[in-house]
Amino acid sequence: MGIKIEGPDVSRRQTLIGGGVIGLSMMMTPAFGVSRELSEQENLKMTTFTTSDGAEIFYKDWGRGQPIVFSHGWPLSGDAWDAQMLFFGQNGFRVIAHDRRGHGRSSQVWDNNNMDRYADDLAELIERLELRDVILIGHSTGGGEVTHYVGRHGNDRVAKVVLVGAVPPLMLKTADNPDGTPLEVFDGIRQGTAYNRSQFFKDLTIPFYGFNREGVEINEGLRESFWLQGLAGGIKGQYDSIREFSEVDYTDDLKAIKRPTLIVHGGDDQIVPIKASAHRAAEIVADATLKIYPQGSHGLAQLQAEEFNKDVLAFIRG
User: Domain range holding 162?
Assistant: First the structure.
């Protein structure tokens, strides 16, 4: 994450109103090859549940079939998985995405914003919904959450695991992890979050999606979606979470995974550099397949959604 945040001179946001929006919607075509449509009778709900320590966790639970549970990255929410929730729901899966505590629409708690509790929240969600044969998919910090879930709660309910731009085994540079990211980078993230969160999140979108690379077109809608999701969360939970994605060592959790695991990473990920993460994780997980998107950014699941969705679908069905 040698995170150099260099925001371009961004032109003023253009707003579509009235008939412009209607005209645009009439011209739009579906983004995915739909194998089946979700009917009105399908399970389409958004709700919350209360954890054992009193936090309210928001989640979406759509469709029917083998369950896929999505864990989002920092500082986002379950909405980051929109393109995947739609695609996999349309292809015969039950899709579930929650907002991590302190993020999105879940409780903005003061205490217990740590990876142990994140993993336990995920476990309580899975148990509450009585899920089995689950596909766990985690992006970035969510990859840490998924990995730590297995480390704490085992493999019994899990069928397969997908880690996307995930932080395990360890992001922080140490004597034993020389390819990691220096502590001062994470201190800078703490500083930006604590004192200028709104602008920091907006600037972070540039390296996050690789919009600072030559020839890459800036997607303003994606930047604004990131910003809105980030500001929907609570500053305390997001601040505490920085330690969880940077300083927690997930090596033992990776060793605990006994299910087929797809590790997906962008070769040009500027947030979670591939050498200290995916390359090492693929060596640690017993049954791992490493898939690298050569020019992929940290946000490849959004920018390369069609290719990513097809690759994950093939892995699940393989």
Answer: 42-317
Q: For residue 43, what pLDDT is reported? A: 55
* Interval 153-179: pLDDT, tens: 999 999 999 999 999 999 999 999 999
Q: Where are the strands (E) in the chain, listed by range?
A: 44-50, 56-62, 66-71, 93-98, 134-139, 158-164, 261-266, 288-293
Enumerate the active-site residues. 140, 269, 298
Residue 152: how many other CB atoms lie within 10 Å: 15
Q: For the sheet containing 93-98, what is the strand order? A: 44-50, 56-62, 93-98, 66-71, 134-139, 158-164, 261-266, 288-293
Tell me the per-residue pLDDT of 50-88, one tens digit each, with 9 for 90 and over.
999 999 999 999 999 999 999 999 999 999 999 999 999
What is the rounded distance in angstroms from the CA atom of residue 112 to the CA atom of residue 258?
28
Q: Please tell me the pTM assigned to this model.
A: 0.87
Q: Is residue 3 part of a domain?
A: no
Q: Is residue 313 part of a domain?
A: yes
Q: Is residue 197 part of a domain?
A: yes
Looking at residue 166, the DSSP 8-state letter turns out to be -
* Alpha-carbon span 12 to 8, nearest angstrom: 12
Flag whether pLDDT at 14 surpasses 50: no
The mean pLDDT value for 94-115 works out to: 98
Query: At 165, which CATH number?
Result: 3.40.50.1820
Instruction: Say if 121 falls within a structural domain.
Output: yes
* Per-residue pLDDT band at 108 (split at 50, 70, 90): very high
CA proximity to 185, closest of 269, 247, 133, 116: 247
Per-residue confidence (pLDDT) for residue 46, from 0 to 100: 78
Closest CA to 85 of 118, 61, 105: 61
Q: What is the mean pLDDT of residues 264-272?
A: 98
Distance (Å, whole) CA 278 – CA 140: 11
Number of independent structural domains in the chain: 1
